[in-house]
Specification:
about 35% strand, globular
């Protein structure tokens, strides 16, 4: 529950800004994702030491399942951060693939308590990364509501639009995203 989540972002208002980090997990080399995540965790720890902590982490193309070798790469990142003494609250939702085997989705991590979560699937747009072969990939937009001390609730959004699709498909996804906002 939101009440049970640790709130560790009490310095945001003193800093006067929220630091966000946006990462596409899969990128081109799925098999080096865990090593890349460790580099991300090290960067986040360095930001904490420099008094510019990363408050919100927005992850796209987060994989999970037996074929991926992990319950979720977002859970792996959260554990890596915890080993460095950093506590983040996590919301992850897989949206495409074969459940328990290989799924892809988005995730959001926050130093602040998460008091709300919502998501919406975007209009279907087949990805065509190879020739004209359409891959059935779903995309979504996510929202978390965080509790910022001395400010109140603040909404954060995360999405990943189709990459290898015609521009009109991305436009339909953007129109749906704006309706969600």
């Amino acid at each position: 529950t939101a009440q049970a989540e640790k709130e560790s972002c009490d310095n945001i208002m003193k800093r006067g800004h929220i630091n966000r980090l946006l990462i596409n997990i899969i990128n081109k080399d799925f098999f080096s994702s865990v090593e890349r995540l460790q580099a991300v965790a090290d960067f986040i720890a360095a930001q904490e030491q420099a008094a510019e902590p990363v408050d919100i982490i927005l992850l796209q193309e987060v994989v999970s399942g037996a074929a991926a070798g992990t319950v979720s790469l977002s859970i792996n990142l959260k554990a890596m951060l915890r080993r460095q003494g950093l506590d983040y609250n996590l919301r992850f939702r897989p949206v495409a693939g074969l459940p328990a085997v290989f799924m892809v989705g988005n995730a959001m991590l926050s130093r602040c308590a998460i008091t709300g979560f919502a998501s919406r699937l975007l209009p279907y747009a087949p990805e065509r990364p190879i020739a004209d072969i359409g891959l059935p990939v779903l995309h979504e937009v996510q929202q978390i509501v965080i509790d910022v001390p001395d400010y109140g609730p603040a909404s954060m959004y995360n999405t990943h639009l189709c990459a290898y699709c015609p521009g009109e498909d991305r436009l339909r996804q953007m129109e749906s995203l704006f309706r969600f906002l």
